Amino acid sequence: MDGFKFRRQHPFGDYILDFVCLEAMLVIEVDGGHHGDHAARDMIRTATLAKAGFRVLRFWNNEVLHDIEAVKESIWGALHSPPPSRPSP
């Protein structure tokens, strides 16, 4: 997308990221209906990734299937906004 490269099913710590653009430090998670039951676990995952310097965008499967243009616009906007500052070691 716009020259940014994404990796699919990328390992990071204890997680497998659905999609990640390492250059932009952007993680895209696509959640199915089962994630509604795991909101607390998803919040911990998002916080862990944010602590590592990633921005996380979450989309429901039906958003990707039925409103892909809005999903693409959200991703494009995140790619073109300033990246978060990296945490100090």
Number of H/I helices: 3
Subunit organisation of the chains: single chain
| Largest β sheet strand count, sense and barrel closure | 4 strands, mixed
Envelope shape: globular
**What is the strand arrangement across the widest sheet?**
1-2-3-4
Count of the separate structural domains: 1
Helix content: 25-40%
User: Which structural category fits the helices and strands?
Assistant: alpha+beta
What's the total count of β strands?
4
Distance between the termini: 30 Å
Beta-strand residue percentage = 25-35%
Order of helices and strands: EEEHEHH
Low-confidence stretches: none
Rg from Cα: 13 Å
Average pLDDT rating:
87
Describe the protein's architecture and organization.
By secondary structure, the protein is of the alpha+beta class. The chain has one domain (1-24, 50-89). Helix content is 35%, strand content 28%. The protein has a 4-stranded mixed beta sheet, with helices on both faces. Strand 3, helix 1 and strand 4 form a beta-alpha-beta unit.
